[in-house]
Amino acid sequence: xxxxxxxxxPPPSGPADRAQRAQAFVSAVSLEVSxxxxxxxxxxxARMAQGATISIPYLPSEDDTARLAAARTVxxxxxxxxxxxxxxxxxxxxxxxxxxxxAVIDAGVERCLVIAGDLSKPAGPFADSASIIESxxxxxxxxxxxxxxxxxxxHPVMTSADRWRVLERKCQxxxxxxxxxxxxxxxxxxxxxxLTWLNELRARGITHPVLVGIxxxxxxxxxxxxxxxxGVSASTSMLSRYGVSLGRLLGSAGPDVFVDRLVDGxxxxxxxxxxxxxxxxxxxxxxxxxxxxxxxxGDECLAQMSVQLVQTPDLPLRCPCCGxxxxxxxxxxxxxxxxxxxxxxxxxxxxxxxxxxxxxxLSLTQxxxxxxxxxxxxxxxxxxxxxxxxxxxx
Length: 394
Ligand SMILES: [Zn+2]
Fold this sequence. Notes:
Strands 1-2-3-4-5-6-7-10 form an eight-stranded parallel beta barrel. Strands 8-9 form a two-stranded antiparallel ribbon. The chain has a two-stranded antiparallel ribbon with strand order 11-12. It has helices at about 5-10, 15-25, 40-45, 65-75, 95-105, 130-135, 135-140, 160-175, 190-205, 220-230, 235-240, 255-265, 285-310, 365-375; strands at about 30, 55, 80-85, 110-115, 145-150, 180-185, 210-215, 220, 250-255, 275-280, 315-320, 325, 335, 340-345. It folds into two domains: about 5-305, TIM Barrel (Alpha-Beta Barrel); about 315-390, no CATH class. By secondary structure, the protein is of the alpha/beta class. The structure holds zinc ion. Zinc ion binds near residues 319, 324, 326 and 341. The site of zinc ion (ZN) has 9 residues, from loops. Keywords: FAD, Flavoprotein, Oxidoreductase. One of its GO terms (biological process) is tetrahydrofolate interconversion. Its cofactor is FAD. One of its GO terms (cellular component) is cytosol.
């Protein structure tokens, strides 16, 4: 007889397990928050998991002082600040050193994201993210994790082969310098494109954790505008795969479909993959979405588990004497391990009868009274009984 506890647990790949994975996936969410949005992050901080990574983008409209203040705020709120370093916008090596030193000392920054940046001509000595990695500034200051960009939807100038070669090389160089690489993808609207890219990433032996960029809930007009600003393809077919109803382009949309597809497609072979939300519609709206998605997954999980309970026809049957669920059949002379009553089919309807069967001169009523009094149906069987398991309780 298999224990009922095993049956209560959802099967490893069943729908309840999927709901659990969905819940765990969104619970590990990280967020991109610019310096000017720090008050909004502070207001929503209680809704985010402590220790969550908050990446701080390098906006031309914000200076190093603002970015450092933002990193300190993120740390103060109990999160992990990850400032972006935009190579081509950094004026000098001294400026990079100063920023990183202050970030590490004042805000306990341990991770940063290096990107080339959007200037066509570098403002200083750093032409690309590799030149920042190779500068030695990061590990010397105490940076432990270095994020590099991944591009599931392609790159405006590089071919696919070049892109992979560059990514592999950057990860190797970060490791060679004693730091841990982290891959952060540009946001995309099509989860299948991201899954295909993740398959190739892992097939190439790049096993580092990945943060998948996901557009947070926003008005469709805003989603399209941000996509254009960031050079992300947002064709109507891609938007429809994200869950945008093309009949109502004036409405808003959230990443439910995107995250559902990702959760369905991710396997253990994909390693550590977590969602990185770009809160285009505001931080409050994104956190609300995370809460709703998590609750929906939780409800699905419970619903699936109760369906399984209802569908389980072979729950162990109650022993007529002690009442515990110890019998897999009734009336077939099974001996209850909890009270040692031998089940010859006697039950409430003839409980007072002494059947002179396997239980000798004992009626079921007497057996029940004995069990209540000293824990076995008969005193002579007391050495053989055991306590009921939790799943056997009536
Ligand atoms: Zn029993």
